[in-house]
Amino acid sequence: MEPPFGAQFEESVFEGGRRGEPEGRGAPLSRAAYRARCCEPEWFCEEAVSEDDAESVNMKKFRGDLAYKQQEFKKALFEYSDCLMLLAPSNIAMRRDIQESRARCLVHLGRHQEALEIAEMLRSGATNTDHVTVVLSLQLAIYRTLEHIEKMIECLQKLILLHPFHPENWKLLAEAYVSRLRLPASLSVLAADFQGSESLNINNHLQVSSSKVGFQHQKNHSWRKEISLHHSSKATDSFGPCEECQTVARPISPIDKLEVQEESEDSWIYACASFIRARLLLQLVQSQQSSFALESNLKAQQDIEDIVASFGLKGDVLFLMTEAMGEDLVPANLKEDAQGEVKCLSASALTALMTAPETEFERKWFQKLRDNLSLLQSST
What is the mean pLDDT of the chain? Predict the structure, then answer.
């Protein structure tokens, strides 16, 4: 990978000094032949004609980055597009970087389909874990803007398969599961079945019955009736207001109703477990942090602690969830992940990762937890 413009040194800079120096180790280098280049702030904004294509490419790239930072997305897109036209086809790394930047500009400009097409193009050219991570992160950003909860969950699950020790991804996944619980279809069914029960608020939007969330012993030992959800007509989620939630839902058959209840129960369990996993990962890195990084970590832990407390989990259920979600947090696994090695992926491995079904992820991370909860419930 070529160094960025301004970081290169010409060989001639050193050759002149070396010729006049005495031989032998420890001989001082001549400093007279080298003068560091000093650049004024935003030097790349000047419209200068350069015969060096590399310099022109870097200037356009820097102008695009500055425009993006200033939220001038149309201008940034123009600069990135010009940069791409000048960029050599052999410079694959920078071409991928510029294409990702163009896609993010398109998202801010509301041109989501074009952004998704670029993401798909980047996916088809991915050859290692870094490439796949960039593609999934880009797709996640697009679907978050579109408020497409299912696609968000899909992207986050694949990111976690690649990077299982990233707390932010687990936290985002937990929030996505909570958002799934607020979908109109689920709410129209469950609100009709559980109106009037005592409830406490989760994150100001999702409410779970405080008398039932602890998996208490019921007459039929069924989880299906232990979770109750309510939705305020004025509630909005983290992605903006949902007008559909305020409309009258169509009649739903008993079979559809049962399926929605089962899906809601699963999402509730997965949300709890994912929040707990995120908190465990934050606790693990806490000892290695200081200053503002430590302060941010502790604040994130406290936010998750408050959310988990609002779920009203009983002590034994909380213990089971913590044990299951922290089972793989051993020093050997963490050391391997911390090395951050970029691994090349075969075409078959890439296809398997990108097409992995949601059930596979849930089986890997949540099946044991569900089994343990079932055993706990049957023993009470």
Answer: 76
Report d(CA 173, CA 152) in Å as an integer. Answer: 8
Q: Is the separation of the CB atoms in 129 and 162 below 8 Å?
A: yes
Tokens of 329: 């947090």
Residues contacting residue 71 through CB under 8 Å, at least 6 positions apart: 108
Contacts of 95 (CB under 8 A, 6+ apart): 84, 87, 89
C-alpha to C-alpha distance for 193 and 171, rounded to whole angstroms: 30
Q: Which amino acid, one-letter code, is at 224?
A: R
Distance between CA atoms of 321 and 341, rounded to whole angstroms? 30
pLDDT for residue 349: 81
Query: For 225-250, what is each residue's pLDDT tens digit?
Result: 333 333 333 333 433 333 333 333 34
Residues 6+ apart with CB under 8 A from 180: 149, 150, 153, 186, 267
For residue 209, list its beta bridge partners.
Answer: 199
Q: Please, what sign has the CA dihedral across residues 276, 329, 341, 348?
A: negative
Say if CB 247 and CB 184 are below 8 A apart. Answer: yes
Residue in 112, 15, 4 with CA at minimum distance from that of residue 65:
4
Residues belonging to the chain: 380
Domain coordinates in residue numbering, the chain: 178-379
pLDDT confidence bin for 262, thresholds 50/70/90:
low
Torsion angle (degrees, nearest 10) of CA 90, 122, 137, 281:
-70
- Mean pLDDT lowest among 117-126, 203-212, 293-302: 203-212
- Residue 355, phi then psi, degrees to nearest 5: -110, 10
Q: At what angle do helices 92-108 and 112-124 cross, to 10 degrees?
A: 160
Residue 89, pLDDT > 80, answer yes
Question: Does 212 have pLDDT greater than 50?
Answer: no
Give CA–CA dist 312/213, Å, rounded: 6
> With 60 as the cut, is the pLDDT of residue 329 above it?
yes
First to last CA, the chain: 61
